[in-house]
Amino acid sequence: MSIATDVRGRLFGRRTGGMEHQERTLGYLLILPTFLLIGFLLLYPAIWAIYLSFTDKVVGNVEKFVGLDNYIFILNWPDFARTIFNTVGLAVFGVSLKAIIGMTMALALNENFVGRNIVRGVLFLPWIVPSFVAGFIWRWLFDDLSGLFNWALLSLGLVSLPVNFLGDPLLAIIAVLVVVAWKGFPFFGISYLAGLQAISGELYEAASIDGASLWQRFAYITMPGLRHVIIVTCMLSVIWTANTFDLVYIMTGGGPSNATNVFTLFTFQLGVQNGRLGEAAAVPMMAMPIFAGLIIILTRYLERD
């Protein structure tokens, strides 16, 4: 190798390295505003909420550090166990119903039939309707005086007196569960439908030729093909459903006798209605490790697969 070639190589390497450094610096400068915006909108409120959870902050007063007193207060709250039970039950049973209904919807819409596009549009309506509108509609449907359900039951002679759906503790939590499932199943349906259309039809043809039954094709082709979609949708929906507030607040307000109270509504009652911001901030902080764990599991699963 000649001296001239060696010099040219060194100069070219320096120029290339300098250009890469400039491009890297420019890239950081371009994404810096986004990071600052995310930090302002997400990181700062989160840090402030964590700080408030360790203070006795009340609206209008200067806060003082109280350590774990707020967390102890929340744990000793008479209905705290019931609130957690309602939140977990709503998330588990709500997501299960949404997954089952969504799978049924996807399997049906994956077939060719007349008017399929119209049916798709109708079944996606619950996902489009705003939550507060859905809450008011369903509250009217379940109303014991002028609700459609009671009118139908009385007209058919199935009951002699109106059923107080939202006034009975058991019926109220069932009503909320039904509305949560109704509002969220289209998300599962459209996700599963997209996954079904990605599965090769040749697999089903080969299974049919080999004599596989409908159930066997579903168990050994459909479910493995949708495994990733099912896990992602279920974990996301668990987080969203556990944070349900508007539907519960509009339909029952947490009643009767806190029978339908969930931790988001409990936070609202402490922070907004009573102005006890320190204790209100402690409630979501207690749930944060659970949601953070779910997000970490989901992220690692997606990175691995």
3D structure, described in words:
75% of the residues lie in helices and 0% in strands. It is mostly helical. The mean pLDDT is 86.
Feature tags:
single chain; 305 residues; MetI-like fold
Question: What's the quick description here?
Answer:
With 305 residues, the protein is mainly alpha-helical. It has a domain at 80-260: MetI-like fold. It is 75% helix and 0% strand.
Strand content: under 5%
List unreliable stretches of 5+ residues. Answer: none
Q: H/E series, N to C?
A: HHHHHHHHHHHHHH
Q: Radius of gyration, rounded?
A: 27 Å
Straight-line N-to-C gap: 47 Å
Number of strands: 0
Q: In the CATH hierarchy, what is the class of the domain at 80-260?
A: Mainly Alpha
Main structural class: mainly alpha
At the fold tier of CATH, the topology name of the domain at 80-260 is MetI-like fold
Question: Helical element count?
Answer: 14
Major beta sheet summary:
none
Shape: flat
CATH architectural group of the domain at 80-260: Orthogonal Bundle
By CATH, the superfamily of the domain at 80-260 comes out as: MetI-like
Q: Please, what is the average pLDDT?
A: 86
